[in-house]
Amino acid sequence: MAKSDDFGFGTQIRKSPYFDATVRWGAKAFSVYNHMYIPRDFGDPEQNFWNLINDAILCDVAVERQVEITGPDAAKFVQTLTPRDLSKMAVGQCKYVLITNAQGGILNDPILLRLAENHFWISLADSDILLWAQGVAVHAGMDVTIREPDVSPLQLQGPKSGEVMKALFGDSIMDLKYYWLRAVELDGIPLIVSRTGWSSELGYELYLQDGSRGDELWEKIMEAGKPFGLKPGHTSSIRRIEGGMLSYHADADINTNPYELGLGRLVNLDIEAEFIGKAALRRFKEEGVSRKQVGLVIDGAPLKGPNTTFWTISKDGAPIGRVTSAVYSPRLKQNIALAMVSADSVDVGAEVEVATASGPARAMIVERPFYDPQKKLAAA
Fold first, then answer.
1. CB of 57 within 8 A of CB of 239?
2. Please, are residues 371 and 331 in contact by the beta-carbon 8 Å criterion?
3. Suppose 39 and one of 27, 109, 207, 231 were both cysteines; which one would form an S-S bond, judging by CB atoms 3.0 to 4.6 Å apart?
């Protein structure tokens, strides 16, 4: 059995409040995300996928750091960071948003939580938005305080996650709606829980607000989940690619704009607020984009794991783009991928060639997401 000291990048990489618990429960490998360890291996990733879609898994995602924005101008300031219209966002609501720079490039695609009228958390993907937000605030002339609070999320995901939540918090937790949050306590442990997650399945995130109680919280959840088949796990590349969910730095980065990803619905150019990137995004909308994200089904033997490099895509011998995320789906019995290709090469049904790690392979452009496109499982 691995010990926590077996993993070491040095003290500059932070450990989550759940680190020791995940090692105790079988975490075999970690990577680094937002300058922290994140468990990436509890054994067989295919079994992790089946555990997720059949029962439930508990994932340490404390790497989803929070940027807390408070103060009299908090709502106005948050709106300057994102092109999504927040004017109707209620206290207790969550929204998937994009944070863009002046060139319209995506800096992060977080979940925004509104805890009170002037109290927000930005729950981050992998990039330093704390520094960006503090920098934006310097000359903004707004009365805000921006910091990283003592908050560490867990994800409880899968069709039986609701039963586990009911065992932990009682029947009343069942009225928590998709993309809403609630403050709760578990035996005195302070939490915010939201009906969100990075799995495209029914799921919840539990935001611990006292890092000293991480080990205790992990064990309480695993104990409550035992009758429902709850397993320790890690975020599933298989399931998130099936669901067409983005992984920042892979499927999007600072040079990607929302329209290339088909996320124009998250850009509201008609609002009064002069959010960062507004002029650039208006230009992209008017002029169109030169490339777009598509889905691919790749022929050949099952991929051994997710791609670790960007694979070139060619059509009629000429490069037209690259695969950003690829994996074998044991449920669909197909190699599936998200890719960015030139806008004149996005016809569904078009055949292309992909330079995979094991050699060239034929592929076909398809619609994405690959499974449950209406997100009925997550929103049920």
1. no
2. yes
3. 27
pLDDT, tens digit, 9 for 90 and up, residues 51-65:
999 999 999 999 999
Full set of structural domains in the chain with CATH: 4-65+151-240 (3.30.1360.120), 290-380 (2.40.30.110)
| Per-residue model confidence as pLDDT tens digits over 318-337 | 999 999 999 999 999 999 99
Tens-digit pLDDT profile for residues 216-275: 999 999 999 999 999 999 999 999 999 999 999 999 999 999 999 999 999 999 999 999
**CA-CA distance, 334 to 370, in Å (whole number)?**
10
Instruction: Say yes or no to pLDDT of 43 above 90.
Output: yes
Structure tokens at 294: 């598509």
- CA dihedral 170→176→180→185, nearest 10 degrees, is -10
Q: Which pLDDT does position 93 carry in this prediction? A: 98
88 exposure class (CB count in 10 Å sphere: 0-12, 13-18, 19+): exposed
Token match 């079988």: residue? 26
pTM over 0.85: yes
Please compute the mean of the pLDDT values over residues 305-322 and round it to a whole number. Answer: 96
